[in-house]
Specification:
By secondary structure, the chain is α+β, with helices and mostly antiparallel strands. Helices cover about 30% and strands about 30% of the residues. Strands 3-2-1-4 form a four-stranded antiparallel β-sheet, with no helix packed on it. The longest helix is centred in the N-terminal third of the chain and has 22 residues. It is elongated. The two termini are about 20 Å apart.
């Protein structure tokens, strides 16, 4: 997988040929691409507070605290948000939701 910086250079090369723009413009385009991609990544990977409800029916990645005999463990589960509550498989019964984020591949 290419880095954001490598994709930015490719983007500028596709958008502008060497003769079409100055080095300054190429650098500005590259930095703009990097800033936008970095912001988008932050939005897509942000964990939300469970007090802020997701949209109804959304499939989510949940960060949970699961009680076990030896103490609580932090883990992850795929769940849904239906009728104002987080729903997850029965194997996670009693788990407390610490955070959630949308699974964007399903949009």
């Amino acid at each position: 997988m290419k880095t954001i910086e490598e994709r930015a250079v490719e983007f500028v090369n596709i958008l502008m040929s060497e003769n079409e723009c100055s080095d300054l413009l190429r650098e500005l385009l590259k930095e703009t691409y990097i800033a936008a991609a970095t912001d988008e990544r932050a939005l897509l990977t942000e964990w939300h507070d469970p007090k802020e409800p997701p949209k109804e029916g959304a499939e989510l990645l949940l960060k949970i605290l699961m009680p076990v005999d030896e103490g609580d463990i932090r883990t992850y589960a795929v769940g849904d948000y239906i009728r104002n509550e987080f729903i997850m498989p029965n194997t996670y019964a009693g788990a407390k939701v610490l955070g959630w984020r949308y699974i964007h591949e399903n949009d």
